[in-house]
Design a protein that fits this description.
7 helices, eight-stranded antiparallel beta barrel, alpha+beta, 9 strands, Hypothetical Protein Pfu-838710-001, single chain, 201 residues
Length: 201
């Protein structure tokens, strides 16, 4: 199956995801996917041209394996996205590398996915913090869900997780390149929070 659409989403800081989960349940949201571990590989050409243009080529494994391409942002919260489901993570990785792409970044997170109205609401646990992402067909629908969740005043981030991670690496002089829970184990939470919230809109 393939999916081609324009992605419109808003990302918000949410230290206590259990509160958000309780609100979603109270609002009658459907649990689309229980908390699931993800592993992700980001690819680029040898000349770094995908990243330079703001494009993303990603292989993700959670409850299934998906290959995703994201075009550069056309607006603050919107970008074109193409996605297909593939059968094998390792084989797809080898295929991409055989075509000349190289893995430039590995990252992991836990994600819980809900459906509320016409919007998808995901609760993301990353090594550097917790976030809520609300994705829908229009910004108006997304803002309505954010208001219902009571998080309209929470810090927002237009940057992707990869961009936030790179900013954290710069600000905190982090010696590692991959976004893993193990790498962040020794980094002080207060330092992470302070540096991250400087990137909020």
């Amino acid at each position: 199956m393939s999916v081609a659409h324009t992605e419109t989403e808003v990302k918000l800081w949410a230290p206590d995801l259990s509160v958000i989960a309780d609100r979603l349940t109270a609002l009658g949201a459907a649990l689309a996917q229980p908390r699931t571990a993800e592993r992700n590989l980001r690819y680029d050409r040898l000349d770094g041209s995908l990243s330079a243009r703001g494009e993303v080529l990603r292989l993700r494994q959670d409850s299934q394996v998906r290959l995703t391409y994201k075009a550069p942002h056309s607006a603050a919260y919107t970008r074109a996205e193409l996605e297909i489901v593939v059968s094998d993570f390792e084989t797809t990785d080898r295929l991409l590398q055989a075509l000349g792409f190289q893995v430039v970044w590995r990252y992991e997170k836990f994600r819980t996915t809900y459906q509320l109205g016409n919007c998808e609401v995901v609760l993301d646990e990353l090594p550097f913090g917790n976030f809520v992402e609300v994705e829908g067909d229009s910004l108006a629908e997304i803002e309505a869900i954010i208001a219902q969740l009571g998080i309209a005043e929470s810090p927002r981030f237009a940057k992707s997780y990869s961009e936030l991670f790179e900013r954290l690496r710069e600000r905190l002089s982090l010696p590692f390149r991959d976004l893993t829970f193990e790498n962040f184990r020794a980094v002080a939470h207060a330092e992470i929070k302070d540096a991250l919230l400087r990137e909020a809109e």
